[in-house]
Design goal:
By secondary structure, the protein is of the alpha/beta class. The chain has 12 helices and 16 strands. The strands form 4 sheets. Strands 3, 4, 5, 6, 8, 9, 10, 11 and 14 form a 9-stranded mixed sheet that branches. Strands 7-12-13 form a 3-stranded mixed sheet. A two-stranded antiparallel sheet has the order 1-2.
Length: 355
Amino acid sequence: MFIAVTLIAGFGILIIPTVSFAQQATINGAGATFPFPLIDTWRVEYQTVKPDVNINYQSIGSGGGVKQFIEKTVDFGATDAPLTAEEMQQAPGAIHIPETIGSVVAAYNLPVEGLKLTGPILADIFLGKITKWNDPKIQSINSGLSLPAEDIVVVHRSDGSGTTFVWTDYLSNVSSAWEQQIGKGKSVQWPIGVGAPGNEGVANSINTTPNAIGYVELTYAITTGMKHASVQNEAGNFIQGSLDSTRAAVAAAAPSLPPGDQSWTNVTMVNAPGADSYPIASFSYLLLYKELTTNPGLNNQNKAQNLVDFINWAITDGQQFASELGYVPLPDQVVQLNQETLRGLTFNGAPLQVS
């Protein structure tokens, strides 16, 4: 609060208190649907930390987030898939900041509980080679279940999606046929199936279609109560997607991560080693430019500093909200890596403060 002193003729000195307001900042991001519930929680909670900073996030899918990041129409992008070599060329100086960890599950709509599947079986289902639920390959590992003699209805994403990248990265890892015929990416040429937009769209399609199977983020399966199969991991164990099994996969992968300003194109956590590791796990990333003024929306130092402050809060104090929303908090090793990345950010060549 400032004190204004004013001389008024005939009345002496009048003291008028005035209030100073902090400079407002609005930070705009867009991208992956998977972290939206967490980012939206951060948006609300951060208002209690810095009431003068507003966070806007559009949940448009990883493909859209990367596109807007490259076009510099947002202050940060968000993606479940690291930038490809081609995307890195289109966005020189881009950095990756893992913001949270999740996994992708094989959700299904059958009148049975406890379905087990292997990676090669999943690949053959999505290739259209296995078409019936009571196929001998499925029945042989589910001897206690009565599987229907019904056609399998495959559901996949119709939009560019980091969830699709993680799913197809896994299928490419466990099936040479998938790797050779389809490959991995945020969008692929699906040989069969029906498409739906977003995790929400795929989840709704599975829930309303008997005999359907599709892939959704674990958090959506948890929040909507969807059945999802246990998947055989590299150690040969059938593992249910959960926070604990995803955390086990991250622990196995974390020591080999590159610095944030190097290429993350080949970073993957699918089929991670370990008896308890769930095999379809992944980071979700925030995308920034190392020199923040590269982005025209960040040519104000106050706004740039507020963006850095928010992200530093999100990867530290903000992680306390992860578990209750179905996300795995970042391990200390990843938090430290992220903070080193943030310390490397510059505004007109000068580093910004990272407290």
